[in-house]
Specification:
Jelly Rolls; about 220 residues; seven-stranded antiparallel sheet; globular; mainly beta; signal
Length: about 220
């Protein structure tokens, strides 16, 4: 029994060390209390990948219960960017979606839309190559109130230059659009960033936020 306890404690310690070893840089938007995001789309320019390592660059949505993150990830572990959509990481039965390789400097598109039954559909494309993937995710019952633009590094430093987004459109339920034009949360004040071309419109119980350019420029 003691041996099992030692193994369990060692395993938990390893998980904590891995979590603490990850460097995070991200901006976060939050709608008004009680309102939730219903779509998230835009263009993302893949920077030059310096080497094969755990680079995760992603836009994503996180729910009110913080049970995971629904994301579109540029993954640099193979030495070539791979772009795919998925729900990470609390439900292993919910399969990761399809994806494709992306060349350095290519601009890819992402679109995540909540369906009438509460599930979500992701469509990602590379307009240059014609590669695309569409996947459905059974995320009914998840209320998403965090829209995130993230750089997640487990080992490497931020050595690839800027991460640039354009033509971003985020929609939420409700009528309070202040979250769109307010300054986003800059996690730990860790990121130098620039944002331009922000505007919002309010329709019938829906806020549409448009951001022409959002760039994560460098560590602060």
């Amino acid at each position: 029994m003691k041996n099992l306890e030692v193994i369990a404690i060692t395993f938990i310690g390893q998980i904590l060390q891995q979590a603490l070893a990850t460097d995070w840089y991200f901006l976060e938007y939050n709608p008004a209390s009680g309102e939730n995001f219903t779509s998230f789309s835009g263009d993302m320019a893949a920077p030059t990948l310096p080497s094969a390592a755990t680079y995760y660059l992603w836009p994503g949505l996180q729910p009110t219960d913080n049970s995971g993150v629904y994301q579109n990830v540029l993954d640099g572990r193979s030495g070539t960017w791979w772009f795919g959509s998925g729900w990470c990481c609390s439900d292993p039965t919910l399969a990761w979606g399809g994806g494709f390789n992306v060349a350095d400097g290519a601009t890819v598109t992402f679109s995540n839309v909540q369906q009438s039954n509460g599930s979500w559909t992701s469509t990602i494309t590379d307009p240059t190559t014609g590669d695309s993937a569409t996947n459905n995710f059974a995320l009914e019952g998840k209320d998403f109130n965090q829209a995130i633009f993230a750089i997640e590094l487990d080992g490497p430093s931020w050595d690839f230059g800027t991460l640039a987004y354009s033509n971003v459109v985020i929609t939420s339920s409700g009528t309070d659009s202040s979250w769109c034009t307010d300054t986003p949360t800059n996690y730990d004040d860790a990121t130098v960033y620039s944002i331009s071309g922000v505007s919002s419109t309010v329709g019938s119980d829906e806020v549409t936020c448009t951001i022409e350019s959002l760039v994560l420029e460098s560590p602060a």
